[in-house]
Amino acid sequence: MEFVDALTGFRVDGRRPNEVTPTFPFPTAPPRVTQSHSVLLLDFAQMRQLKGEVGVVARADGSALFEMGNTRVIAAVYGPREVQNKGQQVNSKEALVRCEYRMAEFSTGDRRRKPKGDRRSTEISLVIRQTMEASILTHLMPRSQIDIFVQVLQADGGTRSACINAATLALADAGIPMRDIVTSCSAGYLCSTPLLDLNYVEDSAGGPDVTVGILAKMDKVTLLQMDAKLPMDTFENVMELAIEGCKAIATYIRETRKINGLNMLKIASHKWITHRVKGLLVEDEWLCPVQWTGNS
Amino acid sequence: MRDLHLSLNQTQRVRLEAALHELQSLAPAAASAAAVTVADTIPVNQEDNILKGHGTSDQDGEVVATLCGVVERVNKLVYVRTLRARYKPEVGDIIVGRVIEIAPKRWRLEINFSQDAVLMLSSMNLPDGIQRRRTAVDELNMRSIFEENDVICAEVRGFQHDGSLHLQARSEKYGKLERGQLLTVPPYLVKRKKQHFHHLAQYDVDLILGCNGFIWVGEHVVVGEKTKTTEYQQKSSDDAENFTPLETRKHICRLANAVRVLSALGFTLTVELIIETAEASVSSNVEVNNMLGAEFYVQTAEREAKRRADLLRKKNGAR
Amino acid sequence: MVGLSEGEKHFIRGGISQDIRTDGRRRLQFRALSVETGVIPQANGSARVRLGATEIIASVKAELGKPSILHPDKGKISIFVDCSPTAEPTFEGRGSEELSTELSVALQRCLLGGKSGAGAAIDLSSLIVVEGKVCWDLYIDGLVVSSDGNLLDALAAAIKVALSDTGIPKVNVSLSAASDEEPEVDVSDEEFLQFDTSSVPVIVTLTKVGRRYIVDATSEEESQMSSAVSVSVNRNGQVCGLTKRGGAGLDPSVIFDMISVAKHVSEQFIAHLDSKISEAEAAAE
Prior knowledge:
The complex is a heterotrimer.
Chain A: E1 50-54, E2 62-68, E3 71-82, E4 96-103, H1 119-135, E5 144-154, H2 159-173, E6 182-190, E7 193-196, H3 200-203, E8 209-215, E9 220-227, H4 232-261, E10 274-279, E11 290-294
Parallel strand pairs in A: 4-5
Antiparallel strand pairs in A: 1-2, 2-3, 3-5, 6-7, 6-8, 8-9, 10-11
Helix pairs in contact in A: 1-2
Chain B: E1 6-7, H1 10-25, E2 35-36, E3 51-52, E4 56-59, E5 62-65, E6 69-74, E7 77-81, E8 94-103, E9 106-110, E10 117-124, H2 136-140, H3 142-145, E11 151-159, E12 165-169, E13 175-177, E14 180-184, E15 197-200, E16 205-209, E17 214-219, H4 229-235, H5 246-265, H6 271-283, H7 294-318
Parallel strand pairs in B: 3-7, 10-12
Antiparallel strand pairs in B: 2-6, 4-5, 6-7, 8-9, 8-11, 9-10, 11-12, 11-13, 14-17, 15-16, 16-17
Chain C: H1 6-17, E1 33-37, E2 45-51, E3 54-65, E4 76-83, H2 97-112, E5 128-130, E6 134-146, H3 151-164, E7 167-173, E8 185-194, E9 202-209, E10 212-215, H4 219-222, E11 227-233, E12 239-245, H5 252-284
Parallel strand pairs in C: 4-6
Antiparallel strand pairs in C: 1-2, 2-3, 3-6, 5-6, 7-8, 9-10, 9-11, 11-12
C-alpha cells in the first residue's frame, strides 16, 4: 500500500509527510480525501485540520469540542467540587483528578458493541488522567475533586491526542489553574518516511505509532507511548516530528483562546444552525470579551 | 450555568451582531488590557515589588499566568481574571445555597464553590428565638429547621483554619426560602453591592441575588414569618388556595425568564436591569415563555446597547 | 439531578395546576426544538436534536448481514442508547446502565413492532437484498450528550431525523450465483436510496403531576411526577407503542384520556418536526 507516493511525495489523504507549517486561520477546506479517490494536490499543513471550540456542554463547568481531521471529541469538566467518595481521596492537600474516556458506538468505521470499561478505555482514561494531573495545580484546590469526561464522537486515528487536547481546552474553559498547556500529537513511520498525525488508515498499516504529549511552553514531555519497533535514530526523528506537531497545536490553541478573549466575534460558517452566545458585556470597569460562536 | 440554544434567522443574526459590536465599541479604553492564556508571561517591571494575585505563579523569576483570561492590575497587585469560574467567597457575601447533608451540629450546603460550605447549628437562630446554648435535643431536631435539599439564604462568616467555609444565618432576613424558584447563573454576573435582597412591591415578589450565582425568585415572605416553619409545612398541601396566586406566579416567571435571558447574553445582573427587561416584555406583548425565544433575545441585546449608548452620551454631555 | 426542596416542589405543582410552568410554558407546550442532520459523516445517517437543554446525537449505520432463519424476507434493526457522562457526572462508569437499558427497550418497543415484525416503523422487507441470504442490518445508536428531562421524546425525534437523513447504498447482485452459494454483492458508493420515514412515529411522554398532565417535562418537573405514560403515535394518528413508568396506579379512564391528549399533541409535534427536518436538509445543501 502506497502510504507515501513515490513520485509526488503525498500521503493517502493528500498531505505532505513532514512540513509543519499550520496556516492560520485554518482554511475551511473540503474534507480530506480517502484512499478510494485519487490523490489531490492539497497545499497546506500536513497535520490534519484542527478545530477547537469551547462551551459545548452548558451544564459542565468547562467543556470543549476538538477535531483533528475526522476525529471528533467532546470533553467536559465538572469541578472543582466537593469530593463525592471520601474513600478515593488519597491526599487531602491536593485536588483529586478523575477521568473517564468513552467511545460512542457509532464512532468507529465498523460499529462494534463495546462493553463499558474495556481494557483500552480504562488505559486511555488512566493516561489522560496522569497527563492532566501533571499540569493542574492541584495544591490550590485541596479537598476537592475535578472530573474530566471525554466522549469520542468520531474516531479516525489519534483519538488519544485529540482527547488530551480537548481536555486542556475544557480545563482552561473551566478556569482551573494549570502549569502549562498540554498538547499531544502522534507520529509514525511508513515507507521510510516519518509521518505526522496518523489517521486510521495509516495507523492500522502496522507501522510504529508514537504518541507524545508535551507541556508546551516549558518544553517538557509528559506523555510518551510507542508500539511496534523502531531503530533508535529513526525514533528520535519521529519523536521530534511529533513534538513539532504538539507545538503547532499549542499555537493553535493559544490563538483561538486569545481571539476568544479579545472581543472578536467569531462567526464561523456553520453547519450547526443554532448559536450559543456567551460573553460578558462591558460595565464601567470590567472588560467584555464577547465570544459568539456559531458551532461549525 | 445554562446557555440558551436558539435558532436565529438571518436578520436576527445581523441585528444581534450589530448590537454586540456596538456594546464592544462602548467599552472604555481600558478594554485593551492584555488577554493571556495559560503559561503566558505577564510583563512586569521587576523593580516594583509586584504582588502576585490569583491566576499567577512564579516560574524562574517570571510571572506566569495559570489561567486563561484578562490581566488586571490594581496598584501593585497583578492578577488574572477568568470568564467562567466557580464562585470565590469573600467574608460578608450573601449567598443562596442548598442543603446537601445534615452532619453532627451542622448543615452542609452546596454553593457552587470547590467545597461544600458549613452552617453550624450555633450560627443559626433557633425556632423559638431564644438565645441559649444548643442542647442535644436541638441537635436531634435539626431536621425541623432545615431538611435535605432545602434552599437557604445565609452570609459568609469566614474560612476556618482547615480551609472549610463557614456561614451564618443569625439575622431575621436569612433562612429557608420557599415558594419560588432557584436559578443558576455564572457567578461573575453578580456584582457585590450594598443590597442583595430586593422586595419588588409592585409584583409582591422577593428577588435575592446570591453572590455565588444562585438567584432566588419567589413569593414575598414578610420577615418574621420565616421562623414559623413547622406550621407552614403542615399547611402546604395541594389545595388550590394554597398555591401561589396566578398573578404573582406570572410575575415570578417573567422575572425568572428575564434573568435567564440576561445571563445567556452575559450582562451583569442588577435589579434595575431585570425589572426593565421584564417590563419590556410586558410592553412588547411577549408571552412569558416566548421570552426565551430568539426575537426577545435579540431585542434585549439591542435595548441594552441603546441604553449604554445613551448613558455614555449623557456622561459626555455633562462634562 | 439536584434534589428540590419542599417549597420548590410545591411551587412546581402549583404552576402545573395553574397552567404556567416555571419557564412560562403551558402544560401542553414543548420547549424550543432545533434539528441538524449529517453530523456524523462516517454513518449512513445522523442527526443532532436539541429539545430545550436536552441534546441527543443519533446515528444510523447499515451493514450487510444474513437475515434470521425465522424471517428470511426481513432485514434487522437494533436500537441502542448510551448516556454520556458529559451530560451528568452520575452517568460515569456503570451509573447510566439502568437508564440506558430502559430507554433502549422503550424505543425498541415503540419502533420495532412485535416479535413477528408486525407494526414496525420501517418496512423490514425493504431491507432485504437477496432473500434468505443477504440483508441490511441497521444499527441505530443514540447518545445523550446533555440531559434535562424528556429523554425519550428527544431520542425518538432524533432517530426519526436520522432515518430521514439515511441513505442505504444501492447493491448490485450478480445474477449468475447459484442458489446455494453466497451471492456476490457489489455495494455502490455513489447511489443511495433514501428511507421513507413517513410512518416513523414520534413519542410523546405525558407526565402526571397532581391531577394534571404535562408534556416535555424538565428534569425538575420529572422529579415531581407520580407516573408518566409515553405514547408513540405516527402521522396517521395510530398508536404504535405505549409505556407507563412510575409507581402510582392510574385509573383506566385516565390512561385513555392521556392517550387522546398525546394523539392531539403529537399532530402538532410531528408537523413541527417535519418542518425542522426540511429546514435542516435545505440548509445542508
